[in-house]
Write a structure and sequence with these properties.
The chain is about 5% helix and about 40% strand. It is mainly β. The radius of gyration is 25 Å and the shape is globular.
């Protein structure tokens, strides 16, 4: 026994510090398979501020609870009443009648009592009829908050239109609940977005749900005659008056054959909704550089300004939306380059190997003008996980799984997403490899009042147990705020999946990361600040005015061993600094009285870098790639 302990001690002393355990996720419940938590638009985690409570809804695990294959559609929830420190798991079931089995559930707390058990959980899910599969409407209910044997209502609604999975379960005005979905028959997208409204009935102590409105969407059909969009999401402002429905797709009048943000707005608590409005990414104001094109096209063109891809920005397929204290939406999505098709236009796909950005698309004035804030560069895109499905050979796919949340008052916005560390993904090949094979959780935040941002934090990276394992991390629409210390601490209620047997069709477990995914008020910095820390990879010049007097060009793009900087002014002296993707200064040199200079990048690993050139005129910042 002593010899075994000695070997164990030796093994752990040989592990580098950056690979030791850094986080401590809390164990939650289990489900029969991963097919319960696969939509970024799905609100499965909810918080109650007054009682400091958190709930997470999911399908049950039939290997524990029995009932056969169809019983995996029964729903249970996990509950914490101490801010996420401890949880009681697998509370349920919520459906006793069980006419149809549920998929992709959502839930939200209802009530403001400081005693968690005096509040309720409103829940909803699309349903699938057994024994014959097929989407058949929705199931809704309201349950008491308890530690065992919940008492829940259970209602099945069957829409004559074939519909798909629900998104954005939220509360607007007190006692009014909302969710949205698209019409989908399994093969074709319909021409409308559907909005459901639920009203709390104090007499029956239940929520009465009905289809509130169906909004026509004038999709562009010029590419292949089909409608193209991703399933809608929705959220309301903290006062419940201003609501926004968001989707990404292509409607008539925008940038055809690419995905743009599309919004519908309500200013009367959801009673009426505007027609869809498309935000053309090519025309969105973008931080201090003026447009999105200015940043991305530098990475999408070669030295002769020939496009590597179509050069047209497009939204990728995961997105989330919230609404701030001013009633303005924040759509969090990854932007990339649309792929090139011979004719007639790009084909709605993404050139995943090129540079991408995670951005917050918002408006300062209710939708009259739109702007974009870069949250982070994105280095990898899609990963496939699990075991080949015996029916079709497919694996479980996951993109960057963007999620956005807000503080209770709407004063702060919070972001989470996954990306693979470029030094380890695919054996260290790094940037340019599309596969997000070792997904790690990232978080960041923005303060609405002054636009100050926090440096993105790496949550699971480097942890000996959880590095590369942040699968489908879903975040509550609101964060918990802890004001007990000398400054506010914001806890991001995030739950992620663990495939127990590396099989998406076998039982999985869930883990809560809200105690590790935190942001302090002191983490917010002015956008003009450059912070050189290991965990900060924001652009070092966000908010700093660049010199407009110089036309500096970097080549070749991408670089291999040498990077040439041309367009320098003879009479100027320059400080040239190169930063890696985590904000570390890795090269520095001073030059003067030259028109161009070469940097030796042969020792740099493949990845995304930023070069900053400072002179008496000001500064110029350019991104570049190293790949071999």
């Amino acid at each position: 026994m002593k010899r075994q302990l000695g070997i164990l001690f030796l093994v752990f002393t040989m592990i580098p510090n950056f690979l030791l355990a850094q986080i401590n996720p809390v164990q939650l419940g289990r489900a029969s398979n991963v097919l319960t938590i696969l939509r970024p638009q799905q609100n499965q985690v909810t918080v109650n501020h007054e009682s400091n409570s958190i709930a997470f809804i999911h399908q049950q695990d039939i290997t524990i609870w029995g009932g056969g294959g169809t019983a995996n559609g029964r729903l249970r929830y996990d509950l914490s009443t101490d801010g996420g420190n401890t949880f009681t798991n697998d509370i349920g079931v919520l459906q006793l009648t069980y006419t149809n089995y549920a998929r992709f559930p959502q839930t939200i707390f209802y009530g403001t009592d400081a005693n968690a058990f005096n509040n309720n959980l409103v829940w909803a899910a699309p349903t699938n009829h057994f024994p014959t599969p097929g989407w058949l409407g929705i199931v809704t209910g309201i349950s008491n908050v308890t530690l065992s044997n919940p008492s829940s209502t259970e209602h099945y609604q069957f829409d004559p239109e074939p519909t798909h999975t629900l998104g954005g379960l939220c509360e607007g005005l007190p006692g009014e609940f909302w969710m949205t979905e698209m019409i989908f028959d399994g093969s074709n997208i319909g021409d409308s977005v559907q909005v459901y409204k639920g009203t709390y009935n104090s007499g029956t102590q239940d929520v009465d749900w009905a289809l509130h409105i169906r909004k026509y969407v004038d999709y562009a059909l010029s590419y292949d005659g089909s409608r193209h969009m991703e399933e809608p999401n929705m959220a309301f402002s903290p006062d419940g008056l201003t609501g926004w429905i968001a989707l990404v797709g292509d409607i008539v009048g925008g940038s055809d054959s690419t995905y743009n943000p599309i919004f519908l707005k309500s200013i009367d608590g959801g009673a009426t909704w505007s027609s869809p409005m498309e935000v053309d990414l090519r025309n969105v104001g973008y931080t201090s550089s003026g447009s999105l094109d200015a940043e991305l096209k530098a990475l999408w063109e070669d030295v002769n300004n020939n496009p590597i891809s179509s050069g047209r920005p497009t939204c990728t397929y995961d997105f989330d939306v919230t609404v701030d204290a001013n009633g303005n939406p924040h759509l969090f999505v990854v932007i990339g380059s649309a792929s090139t098709a011979a004719s007639p236009a790009p084909d709605y796909s993404v050139k995943s190997g090129l540079a991408k950005l995670a951005v917050d698309i918002t408006t300062p004035d209710g939708g009259n003008t739109w702007s974009m804030h870069k949250v982070s560069p994105i280095y990898t895109f899609r990963g496939e996980f699990g075991t080949p499905d015996p029916n079709n050979g497919s694996l479980q796919q996951m993109d960057n799984y963007t999620q956005v949340s807000r503080s209770e008052s709407g004063s702060h916005i919070f972001y989470s997403w996954v990306d693979s560390d470029t030094t380890t993904a695919n054996g260290g090949v790094g940037f340019g490899v599309a596969d997000n094979l070792a997904p790690n959780l990232r978080i960041a935040a923005k303060r609405v009042s002054d636009g100050y941002v926090s440096c993105p934090k790496w949550i699971t990276s480097g942890d000996i147990f959880w590095d590369g394992m942040a699968l489908f991390p879903t975040m509550a629409p609101e964060v918990l705020t802890d004001n007990s210390g000398f400054q506010a601490e914001y806890k991001l209620p995030i739950v992620f999946v663990q495939m127990i047997a590396n099989n998406q069709l076998e039982p999985c477990s869930f883990h809560y990361l809200g105690n590790d995914a935190t942001v302090l008020e002191s983490d917010f910095w002015g956008e003009a600040a450059w912070i050189n820390t290991d965990n900060c990879f924001v652009n070092p010049t966000v908010g700093i005015q660049e010199s407009k007097m110089e036309n500096i060009v970097l080549y070749p793009v991408p670089a291999t061993d040498r990077l040439t900087i041309s367009g320098l002014k003879l009479e100027k002296a320059y400080l040239i600094e190169v930063f890696n993707n985590v904000g570390q200064l890795i090269l520095e040199t001073q030059i003067d009285n030259v028109k161009k200079t070469d940097l030796n990048v042969s020792e740099l690993i493949d990845g995304y870098y930023t070069v900053r050139m400072v002179s008496s005129n000001g500064l110029v910042v350019k991104p570049f790639i190293v790949t071999r």
